[in-house]
Amino acid sequence: MSGKTSTDSVAESARLSAARDEFITQWGVMGSAWGINRTMAQIHALLLVTDRALSTDEIMDDLKISRGNANMNLRDLAGWGLIRSVIRKGERKEFFEAEKDVWKMFCTIVRERKRREIRPAINVLKDCVERTDDLTSADAVAFTKQTKALCEFMEMADGVLSKVVRSQESSIVPWALKFLK
Amino acid sequence: MSGKTSTDSVAESARLSAARDEFITQWGVMGSAWGINRTMAQIHALLLVTDRALSTDEIMDDLKISRGNANMNLRDLAGWGLIRSVIRKGERKEFFEAEKDVWKMFCTIVRERKRREIRPAINVLKDCVERTDDLTSADAVAFTKQTKALCEFMEMADGVLSKVVRSQESSIVPWALKFLK
DNA sequence: TCGTGTTTTCAGGAAATACTGAAAGCACAG
DNA sequence: CTGTGCTTTCAGTATTTCCTGAAAACACGA
């Protein structure tokens, strides 16, 4: 290969890895803002933009993290259903790949957050309402009224999200969105 | 007042404050899960279920936090637009009250998160796409394809949220939701 | 059963984040 | 301009959260 071509391809691959790093870093920042730990988000980002399954060692190497850290976060990601492990026959090592379909990924996240955070919150709110429903002091009435409103809102949101998620790959959602002019 | 009545009202007020504490605590827990600091969420919770504006000192006292902490988080909450300060004539002290309308509160949160997190993320993605669009290696193509998909999805989500938020107090949203069967 | 390659666990340490308290700043009445 | 009451700031500290690395557990072929 000529000097020029070689130089170009080096430059190109540098450009790619710069962009890739930028993406991984920022996906990590975004994760923190939404209550997800940075490393977990970064591993997810890495697998998202990599076209093949990676081993734990490759991930450790790429992100410069320890084995323990990599393993723990890979397991968490699998628990969320955002990645899956792949076993290649003849290899004892485990490889990981991310769900690439963005809509499926979104549905998975919504489903899990509903289950882990929204439902429990609704239960707490219901409990608060029940425990104060019969009280008559002005303070109590205000409290109950507000918690009831929050509870109803969250149940509504929960229901909406269920419907959105259930529609999965159908085109119902994009279609329905037209009505939100 | 009779002994019985007195006893009952003591019990009732204990019941109320137990429920209130539970609510505040859990709202704090939920906050952390969504990337909001615990104290900020707790102050918000306290103001949400209190029927009058509270002073910094009352908040410090109720949540057992320092003045600095209270002040900083109150300012943040005001920055989000979730609370507002109230000046009573004749008083030099500042009081705070939360927006009580749940739908307005939701819109405020969505608007701010869009501005602070979603938009910047979209910009990063666009940047990544631009910087790699012309590369032809298999890796680069996979990268660009995936970031493009994420970018488009987030722009779509951003648009949907804008529409939802813009409809503000209208009944368009509840109505449209019927179509998400 | 042993040896080897791989994954899991977890105590201790590091880093990030949040909180405190006191001092400085500010605003206003007198 | 001065005293008073309230707010803001921020250096130092506490707390929470996360990460490391090494040891233990595991799984499987020989």
Rounded to an integer, what's the Rg of chain A over CA atoms?
23 Å
User: What is the number of helices of chain A?
Assistant: 7
For the largest interface, the chains and their residue counts are: A-B, 60 and 60 residues
Subunit organisation of the chains? homodimer
**Overall strand count of chain A:** 3
The helix content of chain A, as a percent range, equals: over 70%
Estimate the global geometry of chain A from the Cα principal axes: elongated
Strand content of chain A: 5-15%
* Spatial strand order of the main sheet of chain A: 1-3-2
Strand-pairing-aware structural class of chain A: mainly alpha
As residue ranges, the low-confidence spans of chain A are none
Largest sheet of chain A: 3 strands, antiparallel
What's the N-to-C terminus distance of chain A? 56 Å
Give the topology string of chain A: H per helix, E per strand.
Answer: HHEHHEEHHH
User: What's the rounded overall pLDDT mean of chain A?
Assistant: 91
